[in-house]
Each structure stands twice: as structure tokens, then as C-alpha cells.
């Protein structure tokens, strides 16, 4: 074309979590049976929505109002409920005007990063959830700026590295926190959050905190909501219904603005996000309408706790299965429903393989890993998929140079879950020994 129409950050928009599905689907057509452990969708993994929750939704569907637009910021009664619940936690106090609904947190992330000044950067963790890191990098037209999550210290943020990343990058305007974390499953103690808030205050930054898994914490760990520790620092907290209820197909999430009036530049930035949402009119009405009814239902807490107990049990099974496998570093997840496994430095090379009986499948996998530049962990992930049908995601897809993979804890059948992790453990052993 006579004019370049490609956005400067188009090359930074990647999402291997779903890209690998295309590979898996092609392999299925060649006769491969697949265990999908790549994406955090409880429904796809067989989570059954209880009848009482369906009845709340079906009753709302019968109301004409749920078919119409809602206010741009969201259903007022729902925002009033959320504000009251946040204020019960102590710390910063908000009102319904400090809450803005989106069509899922993907929509929120796109606007939060997309309406930043291009030269203003937000530090994201490494590894980092792809939607965040890609959106931040795309808005700037450059690689993401990162701070380290340390696999040798429970995947906690390396606070020294974080401060250096702030100090020596004057373009940094904000810090992203994901707590509980995706992709690692780490849960940050309150003192770590307080330290990050102190850094933001000292260097005059704002904070973005993705708390979509805030109520999915286990193994005796605990954390605090950002609202409880934020003090006077400007911030945005992200929440949603997709993982907790769970209702990922509703595409319903919201942001809470903390200290929006404390800094005029931050206030102007937040208002630009609101104006962008106003152009779209509003977000989906139905899930907003039913949210307070669902989470206040007498059976809701028990339903959520049953799921959390299962994730806790499976997190321990996963750790026990993989912890003695030579060549990998394993941290037990304590929140959300993901686990990240790292290969030790030098453990992987381009000669390693797994036996694949199906000739067509083997040819396809060999073709996928042949190009120069294919990361070593992606090579392992493709061989694991072709040889066993287990689909995980390479860790290098999460804005990190660490070699490894992310896997979910969402399988409901314990026998199947144990089989999947035993398969992964045995495959790692075979793969690492194959080039000796």
C-alpha cells in the first residue's frame, strides 16, 4: 500500500496460549488425542455451573432491562455493591463513580495501556501474563520493560531489581502487579505489596494491580487487596467474574480507581479511559446485573471453597510429581490455578526429542521446531504435545527468557490429573536424556 497501515506495536501482540491450540487442532485431525492444559477456562475443563447460579441468570434473562444499554460506567446498583464490599476491607475508600466496567479484563487491559502516552512505560513482571505484556509493548512499539519474579524465591518480585528498573528507566510511569499471579501461581505476602507501594510513592508512579484471582488462594497463604495497602498512591485494581464464578464467556470485568483525585495528570488519564468506554456506549448488562445476587447467594461461598480445596489438593499433587525430576525447578502454586516449571540452565538443547509413533504427527512437529530461532522450551512443548497429546504453554511466551512451561490445575478428574502430570514428568526425563 502507498501508506504503511501497520501499527508500530503490531509485532508485539502475541498470545501463545491460544496459538498452540491451532497446532493441537491440526494434530487432532491426524488422530492425536489431546489434554488441553494451556488455557485458564474452568468451563472447558468440565466445571459444572450449579443450578442455583443458572436460575439467577435465567431469571435475569426474563427481565427486559437486561437486554438494554446500561450506564457507561456500569449498572449503578452493582457498582454500589462493589464499592461497599471494597470499603469493608479498610484502606482507601471508593464510591460507585470510581468503578468502570469493561467487556472482560482483556478490554480493560487494552484501554489502560492503549491510552497511555506512548513514551510512558509500565514495568511488567517477568514472567508476565501475555495480555498485559503484549498490550504494554504494543502501545510503546517496543519490547516490554520488566522486573524479575524469582523462581528461587517462590516467584516473588525481586524488589532490588524492581527499584533498579525504575531508577534507570526515567520513562517508567507505573508498575504492574498480578496477585495472585498468572502464570506462576504465586501469592504475594502483604509486606511485598507494601514495599512496591512504597517504591511507587517514592518515585511518583502509579500502580496497576490485576486481582482477578484474589479470592482463589490456598495452602495456608494469605495476601491483601491493593485497596488495603495503597495509601495515597494513584492506582487501578482489576477484578472480574470470569475465573471466580466462573463465567469467562460473559466477558465481564471492572476496574476500581484508587486516589483518582490525588494527581491531576492521573485524573486526566483515567478520564480518557472513561471517554474511550463512552464511545462504545457501555459493557455487557446481563452479567453485571446478576453479579451481586450470585456472590451473596447462601450457596456461593461453599461452591467457591470446594473449588479452592480442589486446586489446593491438585497443586500439591503437581508439586509432588515434578519436584524430584532432575533438570527442572518447581514451585508449588498457592493461588489462581496455574503452575510454572523452569528448566535448569543448560538442560535443553536442539538435539533432544521424544518418540512420536504417528509418522504424520512426527513430520509436523519436526517441521514446527526446525526453524532457527525456535525457543528451546517451545521445542519441548511441541514434542510433548506430539508424543503425548498434553498441551501446555512455553514459559518464554510470558515475556521471559526463562525456559519452561505453564500448566493448569483445572482438570476435575483426579485420576486424569495424576496421569497428565506423571506423563509430563516421564516426558521431561526422556527428553533430557535423549541427547546423551
Series of secondary-structure elements, N-terminal to C-terminal: HEHHEHEHEEHEHEHEEHHHEEHHEEEH
Helix content: 40-55%
Number of strands: 14
CATH evolutionary superfamily of the largest domain: Type I PLP-dependent aspartate aminotransferase-like (Major domain)
In the sheet with the most strands, the strands line up as: 2-9-8-7-6-3-4-5
Q: How does CATH name the architecture of the largest domain?
A: 3-Layer(aba) Sandwich
Q: How many individual domains?
A: 2
SS strand fraction: 5-15%
Query: What's the N-to-C terminus distance?
Result: 52 Å
Radius of gyration: 22 Å
Secondary structure layout plus pairing:
Layout: H1 16-29, E1 35-36, H2 51-61, H3 76-88, E2 99-102, H4 105-114, E3 121-126, H5 130-140, E4 146-150, E5 156-157, H6 159-167, E6 172-178, H7 190-202, E7 206-210, H8 226-229, E8 235-240, E9 253-258, H9 264-279, H10 285-296, H11 300-322, E10 328-330, E11 338-343, H12 359-369, H13 376-388, E12 390-391, E13 393-394, E14 404-408, H14 414-433
Helix pairs in contact: 2-10, 3-10, 4-5, 11-14, 12-13
Summarize the structure.
This protein is 41% helix and 14% strand. By secondary structure, it is an alpha/beta fold. The chain has two domains: 10-47 and 301-433, Aspartate Aminotransferase, domain 1 (Alpha-Beta Complex), CATH 3.90.1150; 68-296, Type I PLP-dependent aspartate aminotransferase-like (Major domain) (Aspartate Aminotransferase, domain 2).
Amino acid at each position: 500500500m502507498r501508506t504503511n497501515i501497520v501499527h508500530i506495536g503490531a509485532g508485539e501482540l502475541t498470545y501463545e496460549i491460544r496459538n498452540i491450540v491451532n497446532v493441537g487442532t491440526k494434530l487432532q485431525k491426524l488422530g492425536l488425542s489431546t489434554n488441553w492444559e494451556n488455557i485458564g477456562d474452568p468451563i472447558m475443563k468440565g466445571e459444572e455451573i450449579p443450578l442455583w447460579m443458572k436460575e439467577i441468570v435465567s431469571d435475569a434473562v426474563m427481565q427486559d432491562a437486561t437486554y438494554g444499554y446500561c450506564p457507561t460506567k456500569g449498572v449503578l446498583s452493582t457498582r454500589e455493591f462493589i464499592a461497599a464490599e471494597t470499603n469493608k476491607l479498610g484502606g482507601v475508600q471508593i464510591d460507585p463513580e470510581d468503578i468502570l466496567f469493561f467487556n472482560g479484563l482483556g478490554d480493560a487491559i487494552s484501554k489502560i495501556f492503549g491510552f497511555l502516552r506512548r513514551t510512558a512505560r509500565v514495568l511488567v513482571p517477568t514472567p508476565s501474563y501475555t495480555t498485559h505484556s503484549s498490550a504494554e509493548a504494543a502501545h510503546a512499539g517496543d519490547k516490554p520493560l520488566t522486573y524479575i519474579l524469582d523462581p528461587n524465591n517462590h516467584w516473588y518480585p525481586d524488589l532490588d531489581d524492581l527499584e533498579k528498573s525504575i531508577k534507570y528507566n526515567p520513562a517508567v510511569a507505573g508498575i504492574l502487579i498480578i496477585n495472585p499471579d498468572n502464570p506462576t501461581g504465586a501469592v504475594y505476602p502483604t509486606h511485598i505489596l507494601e514495599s512496591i507501594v512504597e517504591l511507587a510513592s517514592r518515585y511518583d508512579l502509579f500502580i496497576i494491580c490485576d486481582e482477578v484471582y484474589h479470592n482463589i488462594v490456598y495452602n495456608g497463604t494469605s495476601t491483601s487487596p491493593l485497596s488495603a495497602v495503597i495509601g495515597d498512591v494513584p492506582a487501578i485494581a482489576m477484578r472480574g467474574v470470569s475465573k471466580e464464578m466462573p463465567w469467562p464467556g460473559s466477558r465481564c470485568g471492572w476496574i476500581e480507581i484508587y486516589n483518582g483525585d490525588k494527581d491531576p495528570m492521573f485524573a486526566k488519564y483515567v478520564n480518557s479511559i472513561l471517554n474511550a468506554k463512552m464511545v462504545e456506549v457501555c459493557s455487557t448488562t446481563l452479567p453485571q446485573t446478576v453479579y451481586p445476587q450470585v456472590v451473596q447467594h447462601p450457596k456461593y461461598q461453599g461452591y467457591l471453597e470446594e473449588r479452592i480445596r480442589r486446586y489446593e489438593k491438585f497443586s500439591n499433587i503437581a508439586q509432588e510429581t515434578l519436584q524430584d525430576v532432575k533438570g527442572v525447578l518447581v514451585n508449588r502454586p498457592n493461588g489462581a490455578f496455574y503452575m510454572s516449571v523452569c528448566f535448569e540452565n543448560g538442560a535443553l538443547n536442539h538435539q533432544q526429542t521424544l518418540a512420536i509413533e504417528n509418522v504424520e504427527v512426527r513430520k509436523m512437529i519436526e517441521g514446527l521446531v526446525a526453524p532457527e530461532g525456535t525457543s528451546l522450551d517451545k521445542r519441548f512443548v511441541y514434542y510433548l504435545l506430539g508424543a503425548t497429546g498434553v498441551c501446555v504453554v512455553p514459559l518464554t511466551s510470558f515475556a521471559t527468557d526463562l525456559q519452561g512451561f505453564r500448566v493448569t490445575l483445572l482438570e476435575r478428574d483426579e485420576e486424569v490429573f495424576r496421569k497428565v502430570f506423571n506423563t509430563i514428568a516421564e516426558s521431561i526425563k526422556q527428553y533430557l536424556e535423549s541427547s546423551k
